4Fe-4S ferredoxin iron-sulfur binding domain-containing protein (gut metagenome), 222 residues
Amino acid sequence: MTPSVGITASDSRIVGFIFPVYMGGLPGIVRRFLESYPFRKGVYYFSIGTYYTYKGCAVSVVDKIMSGKGVRLDYGYNLPTVGNCLKEYEVSSVRRTKILERAELYTSRIIDDLKKGKRKKPFPYCRLSDLLHKGLFNAFFSRSHLNFSLENGCMGCGVCERVCPVNNITLKNGVPRWGTGCEACHACVHWCPRNVIQIGKSKGRLQYHHPAVKRTMLYRVE
């Protein structure tokens, strides 16, 4: 399933695309958005890819997609931050704090660069890295909908349904059901107020979201 919101070009002179890096590449929903976005010449475009351990060539892929539409990325940056893939790992509270403190410093530099209109080209596109991302992601996450489990304690609040960016979760008789279009963002796992949604080996691992983000910010615009 796909979001119900259409894609229109921003009339701003500065447009940015910020996304989480998935195994060194773009999340599917981000790639599809960029491939459909009506880019305009004369606009300052920037892109920030947030990653935990492996940044790959994600930002370079953004530039490649744009080049196919007659424009180029003016500023590209890879921002290290806290990983949230509970299916595979957990980041301790202590490490989270250190990573976020460092990310704040990087973010301040990025903001300063953007205000000054600086140019920072990403590394050249690497087809091998892009193919590696697609292979790894398909191997580990393409069937994520098969790995969800629901423990006792669900109160049918619908938070999981509302934070899913692709309408992949529906409540049936107050119980969440996952479709086949999961983007592996893990929002439903991290935002469950009862912590009863699990995926893979997530049981017992700490939920995470950036302390400045509220779940209502993620609710879809209908």
